[in-house]
Give the backbone structure.
Amino acid sequence: MIGILNYGLGNIYALKNIFDESNINVKIISKSSELTPPINKLIIPGVGSYDNAIRKIKDLNFFEIINNFSNEKRNFILGICVGMQILGDYSEEGSEKGLQIIPGSVIKFSKDYIVPNMGWNKIKIIKENELFKNINENDMFYFLHSYYFKTSKLDNILCYSKYYHDFPSVIYKNNIFGIQFHPEKSHSAGKKILINFNNLT
Amino acid sequence: MNSKRLIVSLQLWRGKCIKTSKFEKNNSTYLGDVLNAVNIYNEKEVDELVLFDLEASKNRTINFELLSKISRVSRMPLTYGGGIDSLEKATKLLSLGIEKLNFNNLFFNEVDEFKKISNYIGKQSIVLSIDYRKEKNNYNIYYEGGAKKSTLTIRDIADKNIQQFIGELYLNNIERDGEMNGYDDSLLKNIYNDFKIPITVSGGFNNYENIKSIFSKYSIIGISCSSLFVFKGRKKAVLLSYPDKIEKEYLKQS
């Protein structure tokens, strides 16, 4: 069963609404004691700055709990936008350390670019995954970010998107996924990704 | 690279959608229920929806309950503007799942509070609305719904010390609001290269060719329309519309 992390950031109710429409039961997780079976999938939404996200997670005592949750082989995590970025080691946006679940760091787009990257983009899938079932390369997703996830390990990258240059738009390690765009705000294509996440086994 | 956004903007008054003309509330048309509009624009897969609550802007009271309902059903990115005058209100809006916050009065009245909010929530969620009138070849900036004239110029806003707190510049041509007499890009042309943030323009768009001509001139740009996507025909009957996928692709082709 999916749990949606409620830590004061991101669109938890838009996410819940999408699952409700498909008759998929999800639970809003507002306290660390709630992150227990039958919850085996956790969605970490996110809007806003990196340090703000980490601090909110720490304030609610989720930092350790999420790490422990990620170590359990049968558990899945989906981090969205800042919820993705905090899965890494650190970010140029702030001073807090990340959850360090997927190796990589969060880098600012060049100051020569128009930033943030704001708008609709395609994804170039380099590794097939059930997360992309029924997704094709013409599908568009909504991005809103000034920083991007950089990893030296190609093994951790599922797809790229382009803003001036290619950047990883979906990263993963085992059952842990991070996606830079907002599936909950990406119409039917975004909904497919969320339903696919629910169906992962 | 193609980073063009075709945005629908809606104005709210007492929880209902209206459309003003030249920013005049007294000169507005009643459109209908906002949740109904959000559902229709969901179906049409709109790029972004921008909501301006004119009542909240005036009274500084935000209708969180309505915004929460809107945010739950919206499958497109949302921007909200109106009455955001504190960090507390800003973070509450983000927690409801609003992606971007649109500021105007706070920036002109209390710039330090505006900067504080930007630092805290991250500039990618901060939109600054610049409402202007072209007067004797000057572009004068107004706030408080067009009632007060600012001493700042658009070049002042472009200054690094201000620009660094902004994630998106939203340019409203007050005199063309609701007029559907064509978009005038004379200001945009002059300032486009002074900004390292996305710019969104609004005011006067009257047909798809008008949109295409602006999209073809600027690689990174948002076009925000209200009248064009809520009215139909010369008599301005209320009918919500938006280009379909193929039309939208055509409009964005360079």
Q: What stands out?
A: The mean pLDDT of chain A is 96.
